[in-house]
Amino acid sequence: MRRSAVITARAAATFEPVGRSVAVARAFVRDTLQGWGYADVVDDAVVLTSELVTNAVIHAGTAADVQCLRYESAVRVEVADHYPEREVPLQGRGRPFRDSDNEGGRGLLLCAALASRWGVEYTPSGKHVWFQLDLPERPAGTHAAGPPLPTAELPVADERVRVAVVQVDRDGAITRWNEDATELFGHPAAEVLGKSLTDLTAWPQTPGTGIGLAEALQLSRWEGTYGLRAADGRVLSVYGSHLRVRDTGGEPSTVCLLVRAEERAVLQTPPRGPSAADTGPGRRGRGADAFEGFIGSPAPDDLDGLLQRTVERARDMLDGDAAYLLLATDDETELEVRASTGLPSARQRFARVPVEAGTGRYGSARMPAVHEDLTAVPGAVPLLSGTGMRSVVTVPLKVEGRLTGSLGVAAEAPGRFSNQEALRLQFAADRIALAVESARLTELERLRRGSLSFLVEASDLLAGTLERDQTLALMAQMTVPTLASWCAVYTIAEQSEPELAFVLHEDEDRIDGIKALLSQVRPPEPDPTPGARMWTAPSDAAHSSALRASLRSLGVGSSTGGRPASAPGIALATAAAVGGETVVLPLVARNRVIGMLTLGKPTDERFRQEILELAEDLSRRAALALDNARLYSERTAISQALQRSLLPPELPHVPGVEVEVVYRAAGEGNEVGGDFYDLFPIRDGCWGFAIGDVCGTGPEAAAVTGLARHALRLLAREGFGGPAVLERLNAAILDEGARSRFLTLLYGELWPQQDGSAVLRMVCAGHPLPLRLRPDGTVEPAADPQPLLGVLEDLELAEQTVTLDPGDVLLCVTDGVTERREGSRMLGDDGLADVLAACTGLTAGAVASRIQRAVERFASDAPSDDMAILAMRLPSPPPSR
């Protein structure tokens, strides 16, 4: 596509050169393409955008301009930076790629691998990298009618087939709900009208596969299988045929016809009939023609639909009672069940069996085989154990001599199949094998790209928090329902047993039941071996609990009768929720098992191997994020404990004096900074008080804070006066050498008197002067300034005595109050005095609070300096009667 092609839509945004811009850019591209209905290419576009924006904002260090362009058959994304001298990685002509550990240019390599077209364009002011993703061709509208079929070949349906008709508006809200919909799902029309159809949908969320319901409703026509939640909480598998229409006013809406999944033939698009050329003499046999004609209608990438039609047609072609299809793993050692019909529920889906199940011809899936009576050879076909099937014919699916799968048809009667039927089935399997393999490879590629997008998003989310509980919650939310139906996270502290830390289920009403069940089950062993391992304890315990509850409800084995009648229903629901396959993945970080990630499926469901591999990748990232959160929490706790030790534990009671303190340390996570205060008893009738400010903020300033506060208490209680206390503290600070800091300090002794007054002896060493507020509103300094500490070795200080009368307030603050700024304005000493003058008649607590509010409101931004406020007030005597 040339640049001159018609652009039908455009969206652009600019992102600053900061790390979080990468995640914001991914969200911008994802939302834009999904809004345009381009869900098919969203994953690739998000991955490429992530790499290119990272190159711009992280490696180049400039802002990134991202532009999305929509064409009729493609989408183009351009990412521009402002640093055109960046090197472009080259290959060929004797120039190898750069070191694989070097991330520079990796986005361009991904462009070459994923994009339909891509390029780099330079301008005088910068450069931009663009990539284009072509849209897959999806036919829209009606399909051709199918050929007439004999009655014997018609699909079987219930005598009463109900077709639910549901109509939704352009926003996905339900506007029509017929009686069959109520009969099928149990929801009365009055309860669902106006609600979103997605609220009732339990869509199978597998990364990179299928199409979301919101996207399906936007297509002109769509057919497929999904799950709807019935009124009783069960998930019913339905087959839907969606047709998008518009009314006479031009408003679009979607009409959905829904039937039970086993009745899909009622709505399924009929196949095209065979041509005359295919039915002439010398052409393929009738069975193979009909077989291939029935399967021919699925989309090329609809693997599940193709496989399901294959097994249904194979069963009908040989007049069997059941059929199944297995796909081979990459190493051809195992077969995975991917589709079945006529077997009990879907319990076999994703189950694995070995290719070589035994010795001889019938023990290998690589050769056709006919078993006339399975009861004569128990276990010959483990997949059919307990199903009531007696005879079976199996044939391999091969492409270029390589085993890609196995197709089997079974019957309840013995001796049902002959070698001739095996040949017919093999001939049909040969015809469909290439189409199945092509669809499988397409699905694997989509899974790979979807997994890459999923891991990019997961890594970004996990890296965005250092909170342990939030990390646990993210781990569970990323796996449910994307990878599993429920999830439990166990954590392991050093030298302790695994502890259940978090539980999540896609149905919130079942979380408590699963949590109670797991609390009764011994946790899995913390095995550091990589990979997922099976864990049967939850399902075994759930089934045992359900059985006991059922017996109690019947009055068997229990005479207590104290449990509510709903207990059996709750136990059965819990058993259904955790009764499927459960796997455990170790969370290993820094060569130590720090926890376990447990994933589970509901009854009769299994995990597919690709999902387990994706979960293993996620568990490695989650383990490191969880361990980082643990280390951060431990160091934060240590830091907070050490910081709290630098402040007095609580204010002592001083008879006849109201005392209030407000303290705020600057910096995130800091409880103590360079400012400090103290109030402590020295001897009977005498209390010491101090408020100081160490030069700077953070841990270095806090270290001098601890030295000053503890030295003041020790020296004062040894009987030294104020000047002697500060002179010795000055010497101790200078002894710290390079670690010493300047220190401003107001230190004094408080002597309450019997008449309600108080005598203060103070030394103000370079600190903002204390202010005295009289009952008439007069504000005046209560001390004179003297040299600060930590500068001069020979320091001479003098003590000043002040008497506070009843009703007086003494306010002491640090420069975080007086130097509060808003642009060129500063609160200053005069501004503080004005605020204090308005505090006449207030208590000490009210005075401190008003000063704090005045400081915070003086500027719009948060305070950037430590702040300490110490207010002392002598209560006024009660009025005489």
Automatic annotation (TrEMBL):
Keyword Hydrolase: yes
Entries under Gene3D superfamilies matching the protein: 3.30.450.40, Histidine kinase-like ATPase, C-terminal domain, PAS domain, PPM-type phosphatase domain
Domain PAS: 159-197
This protein's name: SpoIIE family protein phosphatase
Entry keyword Hydrolase: yes
Protein species of origin: Actinacidiphila acididurans
Superkingdom, natural source: Bacteria
Pfam families referenced in this protein's UniProt entry, alphabetically: GAF, GAF_3, HATPase_c_2, PAS, SpoIIE
SUPFAM superfamilies referenced in this protein's UniProt entry, alphabetically: ATPase domain of HSP90 chaperone/DNA topoisomerase II/histidine kinase, GAF domain-like, PP2C-like, PYP-like sensor domain (PAS domain)
InterPro entries referenced in this protein's UniProt entry, alphabetically: Bact_Sigma-Reg, GAF, GAF-like_dom_sf, HATPase_C_sf, HATPase_dom, PAS, PAS-like_dom_sf, PAS_fold
Keyword terms: Hydrolase
PANTHER family per record: STAGE II SPORULATION PROTEIN E, STAGE II SPORULATION PROTEIN E-RELATED
Stretches the record annotates as Disordered: 268-287
